[in-house]
Amino acid sequence: MTEISFYSSEANQLDDNNMPASVDIDDKENKVVSSLVRFVNQLVDAENLIILAGSGTSLTFNKDGQAAIAPSMTDLWHSCESLDASKFEEVLKSVNYADVAGTWPDGEQKKDIELLLSLCDSYLPLKNLSATRQRRVTNFLSEAKNKIIKETSFVDKVKSEDWQSHNKFINTLGKRSPKQKRLKVFTTNYDLAFEVAASNTGVIVIDGFEFSKPYRFNPAWYQYDIVNRSQASEKGGAYLTNIIHLYKVHGSVDWVRRGTGVYKKDESAAVGGEPVFIYPSSTKYQNSYDSPYLDMMAAFLEAVQKPKTALLCVGFGFNDKHLNNAITMALRTNPEFMIMVATKDPFDTNGSFNAEVRTQFMSAIKAGDSRIGIADCSFKSLASLLPNRHKPSPEETLLSMFEQVIAKGSEQ
Description:
Blueprint: E1 3-8, E2 22-24, H1 31-44, E3 48-53, H2 73-81, H3 85-94, H4 97-101, H5 113-126, H6 131-152, H7 164-174, E4 183-187, H8 193-201, E5 204-206, E6 215-216, E7 227-233, E8 236-239, E9 243-248, E10 251-258, E11 261-264, E12 274-277, H9 293-304, E13 309-314, H10 321-333, E14 337-343, H11 355-366, E15 372-376, H12 379-385, H13 394-411
Parallel strand pairs: 3-4, 3-13, 4-9, 5-9, 13-14, 14-15
Antiparallel strand pairs: 1-2, 1-15, 6-11, 7-8, 10-11, 10-12
Helix pairs in contact: 3-6, 5-6, 7-8, 7-12, 9-10
């Protein structure tokens, strides 16, 4: 039995601890489950569907009782700490991390690796540290980035059967009706999970990089589309249905900055440069004015303000102030904007979910705002609820049959 919790203006029952009741996701007769299903269907059918994905989507690869494949943000903190525990503590003191980070409600200091890296980047240009501390922070920043790249380059370790949730998520939402806008996936993850899932399901990814080598970031590519010329008529082109736009807001394991451009690494055409990590926090806004972050944030701001827009925040804890501000502004100014939050433990006051955002959303729901829904569920559970609106083409049906024949042949 898989249990979930859902809170909306329709399913608004809270217990004495201000928590919605947990219900069996397979109990379709349950009022909470039926409300959740209706809300999900509204999202999928929206003309303009946007995904905002956080680390919780990748954590679905981890299995109980087995070594974790995908690291959480806390795991990345400990990985960077393990580089050299004594030097790590010195770095924390050098950038006054404890004064900025704050604590959780239980008094424990927050362990935010992106905030720490942001503080390091902020302190180094000032050059007000001693020579020893300046060198130590500089070395830590370089080593930490390389460590994070290593830890988040895990897709080759994922077994084929464990891609099921990602595959269904991308396949179901990525293949949309020509009358609907292209699916836009914004993710704060560095890993390549969504790219692999798209490849697994035959979905084409437009990620802002040119198709020719070396792959250089060019936001103009988000404005282009792809048609099937063999099916096009004189009156217009036959737009492909299996295309998504992917925006990696915080950078990627395969991005490097060289000179004034950002490039995608390729094994056959090595491109040297510095890793591209974007970790904006409440203490640093300089990254907001650099490409590609500026281009991606502009795209997000534009998307959430469009009519008939639905935003699905999955595995996202709302710990990016830039994105939070854009979402709350859309709720205030766009009457046709709806949002669903689907992540683990969004109602836990001692958890990592942003407390201010939780209060805002729950207060709006209590006041009767039907545009907001909050679900306590895993990425796997959410993927299982997604309705498949796509009708396979004859080519897709033939390919599926061929793959099944090949699979059976290899088993014999």
